[in-house]
Amino acid sequence: MDYLEIKGGNPLKGEVRISGSKNAVLPILAATLLTDERCVIRGIPDLSDVKHMAKILQTLGAEVELESGTITVQAKSINPFGDYDIIRKMRGSVCIMGPLLGRLHEAKVSMPGGCVIGARPINLHLWGFKSLGAQIDLKEGYVIAKAPQLEGCSIFMGGRNGSTVLGTANVMMAAVLAKGQTVIEYAACEPEVKDLADFLIKMGADIKGAGSPTIRIRGVEKLHGAEHTVIPDRIEAATYAIAAAATDGEVTLLNSEPNHIQAILHQLRQANVSCTVSGKEVTIKRKGELRPVSIATQPYPGFPTDAQAQLMALMTQARGISIITERIFESRFMHVPELGRLGAHIELEGVSAIVEGGFELQGAHVMSSDLRASAALVIAGMVAKSTTIISRIYHLDRGYEKMDVKLRKLGADIGRWSSEPSNPNYRPVPPSLAQFVE
Predict the structure, then answer these.
(1) Residues 258 and 376 in one domain
(2) Residues 88 and 124 occupy one common structural domain
(3) What range defines the domain where residue 134 resides?
(4) Is 95 part of the annotated catalytic residue set?
(5) Domain boundary among 213, 229, 245
(6) Using an 8 Å Cβ cutoff, are 334 and 373 in contact?
């Protein structure tokens, strides 16, 4: 198992290119199942989740080629039965249900897994499929959906914490081949939903309103192959922007989409950080002493839950009190105890974390609990005195393309090591880290 070793104190300086969006590419890859023709997707990030999705497509019968950031998929002949052991490991894999149901009128998919950040039920996905006329059964860990013919209808997709991004995508993919018109009300407005719709439209789908709360889909008989380049990853961009501010550096984000990170840039400006936008580039530089800010996570265009942990790491360096409220996932404060190991002063009160910033962080051995918590620990490690060791970084590899490599190019003192003697990057694990390494 790999781990990171970070020696803090170096300001990040230079340029970093933002990779393609993980949360956009996974449903787009699933959408290639809707046609038997060749699809080419560019701007593919080198992530374990993407490789996992490619493997899922292959197990369904699709031909998949991945080379130099481009995936070519041709799903000439596919089956509706997803491999239990592969699919259950990643939550994003549930988005194959919509395409399978739309094209084959049948899907059998295991209940998905993913980061442990709270309950993320797929009840709204299933509600959407039922509304389109599918019969849903839950049996032995599988979700089984069948429908001789999907029929367009009006579907309300709002849940306890707002609209569902993956649910909106899943139902949209099922509806593009349904008979008649489907209207998705309270649809997710995230850029990743819009990017999926743009790809489906290139395939011949009739979709209007994607990116707004109301999406109208008129079903077509057949879709064809298409080529598409995925949007930049707004959460990766947010992470590097926050890291630049935390380390008191100056970093320019290349290949970013500033309109997608307005909520992040607003909070950074409130925290006394300069954010200069020029086309697809954003330059981040702290103006002086950081100021505390308070935020509540919200669906897009509000402050994203996927950047909450990173902002918390930043606020440990802002003298004063910041209040960070999590309104999307109830268990997304698992990074708080680990930040505490580094010397952060954070108290939890219900759905809010109260951060008393301005205290010096000290290096320690910490453990990743999920994808975004990992990024927060990396940021904290880069500002902490002495050395920080972060274990279980496989979480990080799910959503950040070669993060340690990119950070080293920006001047961070960060190394990746392995606890496995057979690994060429092997480095003996310090005895005090043994409890964290499986």
Answers:
(1) yes
(2) yes
(3) 22-229
(4) no
(5) 229
(6) yes
Q: Which residues contact 278 (CB under 8 A, 6 or more apart)?
A: none
In angstroms, the CA 283 to CA 12 distance is 12
Element (H, E) at 23: helix 22-31
| Span 89-137, pLDDT tens digits | 676 788 999 999 999 999 998 876 544 434 447 889 999 999 999 999 9
Q: Residue 92: what pLDDT?
A: 74
- Average pLDDT of the residues in 138-161: 91
CA-CA distance, 183 to 165, in Å (whole number)?
A: 16
Which one from 95, 115, 189, 275 is the annotated catalytic residue? 115
Q: What is the pLDDT at residue 423?
A: 81
CATH number, residue 55: 3.65.10.10
Query: 96 in helix, strand or coil?
Result: helix
pLDDT tens by residue, 221-248:
999 999 999 999 999 999 999 999 999 9
Mean pLDDT for 347-368 is 96
> Side chain identity at 296, as an amino acid letter?
A
End-of-domain residue from the set 195, 229, 263: 229
Judge if 64 and 178 occupy the same domain.
yes
Contacts 24+ apart (CB under 8 A), 431-437: 432/365, 433/3, 433/365, 433/389, 433/391, 436/3, 436/365, 436/367, 436/391, 436/392, 437/1, 437/3, 437/391
Same domain, 291 and 381: yes
Indicate if 148 and 127 belong to the same structural domain.
yes
Number of structural domains in the chain: 2
Instruction: Clarify whether residues 203 and 244 are in a common domain.
Output: no
Tokens, residue 421: 């003697």
Amino acid (one-letter) located at 369: S
Q: What's the whole-number mean pLDDT along residues 214-220?
A: 98
Give the pLDDT mean for 302-330: 95
The verdict on pTM exceeding 0.70 is yes
Distance separating alpha carbons of residues 206 and 70, to the nearest angstrom: 26
133 and 169 both lie in a single domain: yes
* 258, 347: one domain: yes
Nearest alpha-carbon partner for 348 in 370, 329, 333, 332: 333
